[in-house]
Design brief:
This protein is of the alpha+beta class and 239 residues long. The radius of gyration is 41 Å and the shape is globular. The protein is built from 6 helices and 8 strands, in the order H-H-H-H-E-E-E-E-H-E-E-E-E-H. It has a domain of 157 residues.
């Protein structure tokens, strides 16, 4: 009969090896190649990510403004818009008015109005200067000019220039020069009675035929004075 060893006192299964909690140390071997590959990929990814982040932080260069300055103070545009050619036709320049000024990172715009002749029956010229700092206005300029009624193109002023004679009651000249838009708009002020009704025949109506010629001359002069090389020594009109 086979009996259990412990019951028979047989201790042959015991081993003389001493067990300890510390595992035997092995000599370090060569690192596995794939570990280096993974480490290199992670490092390259981190470096490339840093380059992309730094590139994203750089501001994209804006369009060439062609030397044009943004609209400055409210009175500045009226100083630059001398309108001397129109003055020879409309009479002495009398009253200036200033519109709102906007100078945003995307666009800058200023407006100015100048009166000529008698205050109660003269003419008013409104000047608007818009500088586009981001978009290219050339894609829409002609469409907007035609929509506003300017149907006759004038050569020799900027990239594009369109004129509308307002049925002989004035005129509007719209000019595009690179990123800059300049508009000169002429109104003839009809006298009104005490009830606010227009009085026809109270004064002689001006002959505004061919007014596009002096308007074009004044637009060219204003374009030159709005650029950086003409930014110094700006004097008031008539000074």
């Amino acid at each position: 009969m086979i009996s259990e060893p412990e019951l028979d006192g047989d201790l042959s299964y015991e081993s003389s090896e001493v067990l300890t909690e510390e595992k035997p140390r092995r000599a370090p071997g060569p690192r596995r190649p794939w570990l280096w590959a993974v480490g290199g990929a992670v490092l390259a990814s981190a470096v490339w990510g840093g380059v992309l982040y730094a590139s994203a932080q750089r501001e994209e260069p804006g369009p060439d403004l062609g030397g044009y300055l943004p609209a400055a103070g409210e009175m500045e545009l009226c100083k630059r818009a001398e309108l001397k050619a129109l003055g020879t036709i409309l009479g002495k320049r009398s009253v200036d008015g200033y519109g709102p000024l906007m100078d945003d990172p995307a666009v800058s715009e200023g407006t100015c109005s100048a009166g000529f002749g008698p205050e109660n029956a003269g003419q008013t010229v409104e000047v608007t200067y818009t500088l586009h700092k981001v978009i290219d206005p050339g894609h829409e300029f002609e469409a907007r000019a035609r929509q506003a009624g300017a149907l006759r193109r004038i050569d020799g002023i900027g990239e594009q220039a369109w004129f509308d004679d307002s049925s002989g009651q004035g005129g509007t000249l719209r000019v595009l020069d690179g990123q800059a838009e300049i508009t000169l708009q002429l109104f003839w002020q009809v006298p009104h009675d005490e009830n606010g009704n227009p009085v026809r025949g109270a004064v002689e109506e001006p002959d505004l035929s061919g007014i596009d010629v002096p308007m074009s001359q004044d637009a060219l002069a204003l374009m030159a004075r709005l650029k950086k090389h003409s930014a110094q020594d700006v004097t008031a009109p008539g000074a």
